[in-house]
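Morning. Coffee machine broken again, so started the prediction first thing and wrote up yesterday's gels while waiting. Chain of 314 residues, entered below exactly as on the submission form.
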Amino acid sequence: MFRYEVNRGRGSRRLVAIVSTVAYLGLEARSVEVQCTLVAGLPAFVVVGLPDKAVAESRERVRGAIAAMGLALPPKRITINLSPADLPKEGSHFDLPIALALLAAMGVVDAEALADYVVVGELGLDARIAASPGVLLAALHASGEEKGLICPAVQGSEAAWAGSIEVLAAADLIGLINHLKGTQLLGAPVPGEAVAAGFGPDLAQVKGQETARRALEIAAAGGHNLLRSWSPLNGTHRERLDDFGFRCLEHCGGRASRLFKQQLTSALGKRLPVRFRAKDGLSADRTSCPNGSLPIAESVVQSVLMTLPKRSAR
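Came back before lunch.
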């Protein structure tokens, strides 16, 4: 999309190319406008709008990707503004929207063709579009805004889980530009096969120990810390706690269910990693914990559970 600003000093108009993207705040995707202007002055490439280190370094990746396409940046002052300016911008997924906004300002691509898309993706120096975290959240956000999504080709099947939205999954910047110009057609991705990662032992196999099992269920549902301080709560319970959180996700609706599908169809094809929480600090070990107790493993997925069906203790 193009926007014109009036330069009152000279009475001329300055062109601002705009591309839509998102910033991630936990499990929420916030709308961000990538605005690009080319003005006369000493050649420079500036990114403003509260970017972190990864976003600030995007100018070098964008510069290298454009050079790999055989194009040169104009000898002007290039300013990239990430609006709203008070929202922190983190992650390498800003590379692709910054590059497209710059190419639109240069006249290489039609900015109006990008107005109906949310863009995410990391760029390599060879103009390839690499995977970036949070594509499914960006796709859900684009669906709510009634827009399509431009994302890396390797994550097209993941973005397709968002529903009936147009997904342009490109492997490189040249292929994406050719598609926008109508000289090449990118195939529509389909949702990937949900291949289960293989669950371990079931908590239902533990006989008795109603109090201990109930404590495990509450800890898994709420993402709470759990400290083992008596012998019956041993490795048998610990193995089953990790898989209990994943089984609960299958019965959850809304965003938690979509996140479960995301981890089933991730590029790695593996379950999300397991993290350990210690009540007295991350450095707690068997020596520092009383009675030789250690924290129970919790899945990263369990921390995003909002609602769980009631489960009676056996």
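DSSP finds nine helices and twelve strands in the chain. Going to sketch it on the whiteboard this afternoon.
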